């Protein structure tokens, strides 16, 4: 039934953000028409957490947060402090142009999509 997920980043600096996603994160893209790039993402997972208000968040996952921060800082991103949580290590990344995404190194097992 579900074949994937589509994530939208809203930013006043769309071109800078698209360039960063392709160059620094090495995300492959297709042109959906008129230069409107749609980027592929690696496998994803969804978790449901209890909360007083409904909402959602986007996190990119990595195997080594320290190395990822080093690589992406060299590519022009900036990072907030690393937070150690029982479920992983996390930092907020600000991309050139100002869009922000959290990146984390999970300490938990990740599910895989059935073949």
Rg measurement, Å? 15 Å
Mean pLDDT: 92
**Reported CATH architecture:** Roll
Estimate what percentage of residues fall within beta strands. 15-25%
Helical segment count: 2
Number of domains: 1
N-to-C SSE string, H for helix and E for strand: HEEEHEEEE
Shape verdict: globular
Tell me the number of strands. 7
Task: Characterize the biggest β-sheet.
Answer: 5 strands, mixed
Query: Which spans of ≥5 residues are poorly predicted at pLDDT below 50?
Result: none
Question: What is the third-level CATH name, the topology?
Answer: 2,3-Dihydroxybiphenyl 1,2-Dioxygenase, domain 1
| CATH homologous superfamily designation | 2,3-Dihydroxybiphenyl 1,2-Dioxygenase, domain 1
CATH classification, class level: Alpha Beta
The secondary-structure class comes to alpha+beta
Q: Name the helicity range.
A: 10-25%
Distance between the termini: 14 Å
Description:
The protein has 115 residues and is of the alpha+beta class. The protein has one domain: 2,3-Dihydroxybiphenyl 1,2-Dioxygenase, domain 1. The protein is 17% helix and 24% strand. It contains two helices and seven strands. The strands form two sheets. Strands 3, 4, 5, 6 and 7 form a five-stranded mixed sheet that branches. A two-stranded antiparallel sheet has the order 1-2. It is globular, with a radius of gyration of 15 Å. The two termini are 14 Å apart. The mean pLDDT is 92.
Question: What key attributes describe this structure?
Answer:
2,3-Dihydroxybiphenyl 1,2-Dioxygenase, domain 1; alpha+beta; single chain; five-stranded mixed β-sheet; 115 residues
């Amino acid at each position: 039934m579900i074949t994937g997920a589509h994530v939208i980043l809203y930013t006043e600096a769309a071109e800078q953000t698209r360039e960063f996603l392709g160059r620094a994160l090495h995300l492959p893209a297709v042109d959906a028409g008129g230069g409107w790039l749609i980027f592929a993402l690696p496998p994803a997972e969804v978790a449901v957490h209890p909360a007083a208000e409904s909402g959602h968040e986007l996190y990119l996952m990595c195997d080594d947060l320290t190395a990822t921060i080093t690589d992406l800082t060299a590519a022009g991103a900036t990072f907030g402090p690393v937070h150690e949580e029982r479920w992983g290590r996390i930092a907020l990344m600000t991309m050139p142009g100002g869009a922000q995404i959290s990146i984390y190194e999970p300490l938990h097992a990740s599910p895989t999509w059935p073949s």
